[in-house]
């Protein structure tokens, strides 16, 4: 099991309890939510060790950053985070999770993000729609796929078409 600093598993990583929802009937949903929170905490703190811990150690992980190409394989994915962290002064997120879904050893979240990033002294705000997919391995939920895309409106899902072709 990949752990985060000092032998702490993701579940033992201390996050304020008021930031975590409670799904009384589903402990797995809570654990997926926690793994997702660790991902965003790693991003906001620009902590590469924590980001490394949240991703599954597998060749089939994938990541698609806004405006980027699909990255396949753990080395490419982790290198992309290192590049982002090294060129970023700060990152802050306002999150509006749509749902947590758990099906066997796979889980996913769809999230509306408002991201503020300071790169090179210039702060940019952008609205994103993100899907994070997790796989349960050795009792922990690990990220296997992160896909984030820019959404031009303030409320990306409120204006979604009712009919899908």
Describe it for me?
This protein has three helices and six strands, in the order ααββαββββ. The chain has 165 residues and is an alpha+beta fold. It has a single domain (18-150), classed as Nuclear Transport Factor 2, Chain: A. A hairpin with a 2-residue loop joins strand 5 and strand 6. The relative contact order is 0.18.
Give a concise summary.
The chain is 24% helix and 36% strand. The chain contains three helices and six strands, in the order ααββαββββ. Residues 1-9 and 12-18 have low confidence and may be disordered.
Write the layout of secondary structure elements.
Layout: H1 27-45, H2 48-54, E1 62-64, E2 71-72, H3 74-86, E3 90-103, E4 106-119, E5 122-137, E6 140-150
Parallel strand pairs: 1-6
Antiparallel strand pairs: 1-2, 3-4, 4-5, 5-6
Radius of gyration: 16 Å
Structural class: alpha+beta
Tell me the major beta sheet: 6 strands, mixed
* Count of distinct structural domains: 1
Poorly predicted residue ranges: 1-9, 12-18
- Span between N and C termini? 43 Å
**What's the architecture, going by CATH?**
Roll
Question: In order across it, which strands form the biggest sheet?
Answer: 2-1-6-5-4-3
The CATH topology is Nuclear Transport Factor 2, Chain: A
Helix and strand element order: HHEEHEEEE
- The beta-strand count equals 6
Q: What value does the average pLDDT take?
A: 84
Question: Count of helical segments?
Answer: 3
CATH top level class name: Alpha Beta
Query: Which percent band covers the strand fraction?
Result: 35-45%
